[in-house]
Amino acid sequence: MGQLSHVADALHTETVACLKAIEFASEAGMGRIIIETDATLLKSALQSSEFDSARHGVLFREAKFLLTTNFIKYKVLYCKRDCNRVAHVLASNGASLDLGGVKLWHDHVPDSVSHIVASELRGN
């Protein structure tokens, strides 16, 4: 989680966050990843070349390049916004960091995230 500056819109923010996650997964040596997003346009842009010349096309192309060159297998899934509480908690916590600040977890997930995941699992 972190705080971004100089973003143009929500899609720009979602795409930069996705790129950061892809870079983190690659640096951590992960071979297979699943990206979940509540941004349908981002999902489409990562699965098609149709958006490569769009406003944020350079970011879409970079993300797809990293996905295809750094991972054995990857999936991009759509997750309804109301089923994506963890992302919203992380975004909220990230907004409280200093500008440009980032927090990464390699092994232990924060309690605030664990509690939400556990409550969503109980709800299923």
Number of helices: 5
Backbone shape:
globular
Runs in which pLDDT lies below 50 for 5 or more consecutive residues are none
Strand arrangement within the widest β-sheet reads 1-2
Proportion of residues in extended strands: 5-15%
For the secondary structure, the number of strands is 2
End-to-end CA span = 26 Å
Give the rounded overall mean pLDDT.
85
Report on the biggest sheet: 2 strands, parallel
- Rg from alpha-carbon coordinates: 15 Å
SSE succession: HEHHEHH
Helix share, percent: 40-55%
Structural class by secondary-structure content: mainly alpha
Quaternary status: single chain
Provide a descriptive summary of the structure in words.
Helices cover 52% and strands 10% of the residues. The protein contains five helices and two strands; from the N terminus they run αβααβαα. The protein has a two-stranded parallel ribbon. The longest helix is centred in the N-terminal third of the chain and has 18 residues. It is globular.
Give the helices and strands, then pairings.
Elements (H helix, E strand, L loop, with lengths): L9 H18 L4 E6 L2 H8 L9 H14 L2 E6 L6 H11 L15 H13 L1
Parallel strand pairs: 1-2
Helix pairs in contact: 1-3, 2-3, 4-5
Entry keywords:
10% strand, mainly alpha, 124 residues
Summarize the structure.
The chain is 52% helix and 10% strand.
